[in-house]
TrEMBL record:
Gene3D superfamilies: ABC transporter type 1, transmembrane domain. One of its GO terms (molecular function) is ATP binding. This is ABC-type multidrug transport system ATPase and permease components-like protein. Keywords: Membrane, Transmembrane, Transmembrane helix. It comes from Ignisphaera aggregans (strain DSM 17230 / JCM 13409 / AQ1.S1). Coiled coil: none annotated. One of its GO terms (cellular component) is membrane. The chain crosses the membrane at residues 26-46, 67-88, 167-187, 242-264, 284-305.
Length: 315
């Protein structure tokens, strides 16, 4: 039963909510996130509906031997619209990324006002301002730009697959809990490794500065810090491979099962239906995996978020 408990993910989301509520309430941040959301909705509709149906119609047109003309021409026109949407919306993301950069500057100014240099470990405080704020801001941005568009695409693709074949659509939805189980196991282990990595990174920055300033005794401690940092990074690299190898296998599992079901059930479908079902099924699960990776990024970011929140609590 414990395998199906997503307590680590829920805990991380609560910590993220505290950070966002406390620090990310600037008007320019809200506007940037809303503009990005508009882009993600347009792209989800494009990737999850327009493109799969274009593939279906083109495959049917090839089967009829008449690509240019009839349904084939209409499909190519819709494909052109999809290209315009994908390329055009890229420029709508510029204000969003600019808002993240501006937030990092404002956040550092805010944290400097709150820090008491005489209270706490100086080498750790340097790391929190110099590194953790950038790390957290860009990782939250990565999480948002990974989770939101991919989850929206997975939802739209699921609806499209249901219109192509209701039974296949329902079966693909039943596969969704599998990557959630994998993610929960990843997050639980990655947080521990990332906490150690962040602490050793902060410590190494401090002792590099001490060594450059002429403190020869700092060399031995710096070497130890770098070795510990490397050890934690190796753990994260292993966990990343665990996540991606497991989920990549999952991406192909649902489409293969769908095709086997079609063949065993003697379901009458056109070549276009088969092409659309395969593409849309893979789109659902690849989008879901990529979206969940955003939550995996969050799991690695939580230790740094807690370190920043801890500064405020010391005040």
């Amino acid at each position: 039963m414990k395998l199906f408990q997503f307590d680590n993910i829920i805990k991380d989301m609560k910590i993220l909510a505290v950070f966002v509520k406390r620090y990310m309430r600037y008007r320019y941040i809200v506007i940037g996130f809303l503009l990005a959301l508009t882009v993600f909705i347009l792209r989800a509709y494009t990737n999850g509906s327009i493109v799969p149906l274009v593939i279906k119609d083109l495959a049917d047109a090839v089967g009829r031997g008449n690509i240019i003309g009839g349904g084939g021409t209409y499909a190519l026109m819709r494909l052109g619209i999809a290209v315009i949407i994908m390329v055009g919306t890229e420029w709508m993301l510029k204000p969003y990324f600019s808002s993240i950069a501006r937030f990092i500057v404002d956040m550092k100014k805010n944290m400097i006002k709150k820090i008491d240099p005489t209270n706490g470990d100086r080498k750790d405080i340097v790391g929190r301002i110099a590194s953790d704020i950038d790390f957290v801001a860009w990782n939250i941005s990565s999480m948002y730009t990974t989770v939101t568009p991919n989850v929206l695409t997975a939802i739209v693709s699921s609806m499209t697959l249901y219109t192509l074949n209701p039974m296949i659509g329902i079966i693909n939805i039943l596969f969704i809990p599998i990557p959630l189980i994998i993610l929960n196991q990843y997050v639980k282990r990655a947080e521990i490794a990332r906490m150690g990595e962040r602490m050793m990174y902060s410590e190494s920055i401090y002792y590099i500065q001490k060594f450059v300033e002429g403190d020869c005794n700092a060399h031995e401690i710096l070497t130890s810090s770098l070795n510990k940092w490397y050890s934690n990074i190796q753990k994260l690299i292993y966990l990343d491979r665990f996540y991606w190898s497991s989920t990549l296998a999952y991406i192909f599992l649902a489409p293969i099962f769908s095709i086997l079901l079609l063949s065993m059930g003697n379901i009458r479908v056109t070549s276009g239906d088969v092409a659309g079902i395969i593409y849309t099924s893979m789109q659902i699960h690849s989008s879901l995996i990529n979206g969940l990776w955003g939550l995996a990024i969050l799991g690695q970011t939580i230790p740094a978020i807690e370190r920043i929140l801890n500064i405020s609590e010391r005040r």
